[in-house]
Each structure stands twice: as structure tokens, then as C-alpha cells.
Amino acid sequence: MLEFHYFWTVIGGLVVLALTVDAVVTTLLLSGAGFLSKYLTRFIGRFCMSREREFISKNASVFALLATFVLWSLLLLAGWALIFCGSSEAVIESENKDPADLLSRIYFAGFTITTLGTGNYIPNGPLWQLLSVAAAANGFFIVTICVTYTFSVLTALNERRSIGVAIGHLGHTPVDLLKYALDAESRQLISNQLQDLTLRLQLASVKTDAYPVIEYTHVPDRQHSFAIGVAKLGEACLLSEQLMPSAQSFPKVITDPLWKAVYLITGETNSNGEESADYSAQLLMPYFDQLNAQMNCEEKLKMPPTSEKRDRLSAWLAWHHRDWNDVYREG
Fold first, then answer.
1. DSSP annotation of 94
2. pLDDT tens for each residue of 41-76
3. Which whole-number Å values give the CA distances from 121 to 124, 126, 129, 176, in the listed order?
4. CB 112 within 8 A of CB 81
């Protein structure tokens, strides 16, 4: 049986402080996840993304978000329950005034932090009454920021999916995007759409920094996948610069900002090595004639900094359990 002592109040206070700081950093500071939720979301997100069941993999971010809320809820309940274990007389029954046992204090803490009241138990004395008010305020604050954060994350996820759909409608492969550049009229139309996508990707990268949990999203539909769409755009930028004649390629005023947006969204993922990038070049070979490819273009694709950029895209695809076969698959 737990012996009631002020020591538990100190421990509980530290637990409440830790989870509150973690929640504030994660939801309000827009600077990434807190020290507790960061590792939990990473584990849950990657685990769910690796599952074969479509429902689990495509909702990896949602499951990671729910796991974070469960962690905060458990720590909040445990922390305040420990705080009210600081004295045998801290919580008493409302009718006969007998001291509450451990389970009753957990019950009292749960009622208090959910702002439902105090139930059949009441705090005994000014100190514990003030702490019960603080518990209610703390619980209300955590619930409020969780609701607000959930709305923001779901909005960001839907925006990513919308970008994936928009890129998918432009073509199945990066080569489909480049074919628009062969005609002057269609080049202008696609350039306008690429500029719009650049702005949307820049906004998406900002939201990724603010809400890291959205990195663990996965769209099973290859044509509308955000991850594959970003790789398509990045590859199209590189191929337009290295593969096509300057008169028929996209102007750098279009491709440079677009690549920078792709660079931001792909983050600091670790490269998978040159083999993946070279393999994408092999997939590209059948399209050389269609795009009026320049001489020695294959060698250019393997030279830095182009190869380094393509390695970055390879790492991005691997992070989302995709590869270059998905990027160059027709239909």
C-alpha cells in the first residue's frame, strides 16, 4: 500500500510539469514536437506506416497523434493522483470525512482534471483545495490545446493529400511533366501550375516543421501519393536542367524555386546511397528519345550535385516506403 507523503506531491508535480511543457512545445510553439511526444510519434508513426493493412498505413499520422494524447492523458492523471497522495488527509469522503484510499484519489484526480467536479470526494484544507482548482485548470488547458492541435494537423494532412492529387493530375511520371515543355503554349500553362505548386509546397514545409506528426502520412493510391508527387516534381526539375535542350526546358525561374520547395519538404532524411539514384536513371533511359535528350545526359545525372539531389529524393521515397519504380510506373 502506498504511504502518503509530500514526496509523492513533488514527484507528481514534476510529472505534471513535464507533460504540460511537452504539450505546450508540441501544440503552441510551432517548433516541432516536445521531448516526450517526439519519440513516441516517431515509433508509432513508422510502425503504422510499415503495416500492410491499408487502413493502418494511410492513417499513421492519426494513430501517432492519438498515441500522444493517450500519453498526455495518462501522465496527467498519474501526476495529479500522486500530488493528492501528499498527505493522508488531502482527500476525504464528502459524507463521513474518512481519508480516501489510493484508488479513490485516482478517481478524484480523474474527476477533477476532466472538470466534472469532485464526485464523492473533496479536497481537505486550503492547500489541497487550491491544488484541485489548479488540476481542473490544467486539465481544461490540455484538452483545449489538444482539440486545437488536432484540427490543425488534420487540415495540414488534407492539404498534403490535395497537393498529391494535383500533382497526379499532371501526369503519371516526371517525364509526363517534361513533355508539356516541348510545346511553347503548353509550357506556359504547366509553368503556371508549377508556380502554384511551389507556393503550396512552401506552405506544406512550414506546417511540417510546426506539426512533425504529419510526416507519418501515407497514401496507398500511387497516383495521388504526396510522397511520390514530391519526388516527381524534384526529378522533373533535375531532368529539365540536365536532360533537355535549354530552348525546350522549363526556365530556371520556375525550376529553382520549385526545387528549393522540394528540398525543404523532404527534410534531413539520410541518403540511401548512389545505387538508388542510378537505378532511377536506368528507368529513365527509355524516355531519352521522347525528350530530345542532350548528349552524355546519362553521365550528367550521375555527377554531383545532381546525384546528391537525387539521393535526397531516394531517401525521401524510402522514408515513405516507396522507390523509383513507383515514380516511373505508367498508369
1. T
2. 989 988 888 777 778 888 888 899 999 999 999 999
3. 9, 15, 12, 69
4. no
Q: DSSP readout, 275-315?
A: HHHHHHHHHHGGGTTTTTPPTTHHHHHTSTTHHHHHHHHHH
Helix axes 126-168, 60-83, angle to 10 degrees: 170
Count of residues in the chain? 331
Distance CA 108, CA 92 (A): 10
Is residue 244 over pLDDT 50?
yes
| Grid cell of 7 as nine digits | 514526496
DSSP labels, 148-187: HHHHHHHHHHHHHHHHHHHHHTT-SSHHHHHHGGGSHHHH
Rounded CA-CA distance 83/90 in Å is 9
* Helix-helix angle 252-266:184-210, to 10 degrees: 30
**Can you give the pTM of this predicted structure?**
0.81
Q: Which residue has the cell 506544406?
A: 204
Q: Are 142 and 23 contacting, i.e. CB atoms less than 8 angstroms apart? A: yes
Q: What b/e sequence results for 172-189 when a residue is b if at least 16 CB atoms lie within 10 Å of its CB, and e otherwise?
A: bbbbebbbbbeeeeebee
pLDDT at 270 > cutoff 50: no
